[in-house]
């Protein structure tokens, strides 16, 4: 039976064999070596192979796969980097940068229930910035190295996910430079990104989806976002000397879907009215709000948003338990 299956696969054109192997999970692709002598090392020469490793994979296994795979380009690479494998990640990134990798997903093990880690995460190798063919980049709980001199950007990057990332100190505008160097960026997810310098302006000409989650506003601003369709914004606290919350809303006034966690703002608690710019959410179809029902200023903001959304179809309002509401 196995011989007949192997013969069937071997009779297919080579490009079809490659496509079958590309669609298989990596462990299954490697197991095809048992089909026949002709397939013993077939997976090693397949271009565009997806390298995704289950949690707990020994780093030596990854070293061996990258060494054996001679097919050139790698379509994607995914790995959960624990303490035992952190020292290997640099070599992997160097190898991937030379193979035209299109997708990288590197994460750290997460406790359950999820809590923000206070440990210092490992620093990624600078070759991460040499992966010029990246279409998707997902990084969770790492320190980013400084941008290299002459950083050419990510010319074809469409999806950028950064969670609990620490930017290098004394490097003003690093995240802004990464976003600016990604002209095709369509999806941007920023969650608890720590920028010691602050003052980052988020603007991207082709961005369609933006998620911004932060414990406090450290000079983050939204710039020009002409194509934005959906925005999720969770900022726990605004200081009175930071940008007006109304300015942030004005920058996303064209969206069709909006999720807002109304922040605790010192100005609001001092009785200062929220200065809402004269704009209307003409395109807004779905609005989800998280507010403190015992905070009058937040209630007023909610009513102002509803009044400014004439075409709203879907509304969801939930109590923000972190604000001390009862």
Automatic annotation (TrEMBL):
Per UniProt, residues of the F-box/LRR-repeat protein 15/At3g58940/PEG3-like LRR domain are: 91-317
In this chain the F-box domain maps to 9-47
| One Pfam entry name | LRR_At5g56370
Give the signal peptide as a residue range, or say none if absent: none
Q: Which domain of life is it from?
A: Eukaryota
Which PANTHER family does the entry link to? OS06G0556300 PROTEIN (PTHR34223:SF51), OS11G0201299 PROTEIN (PTHR34223)
Q: What is this protein called?
A: F-box domain-containing protein
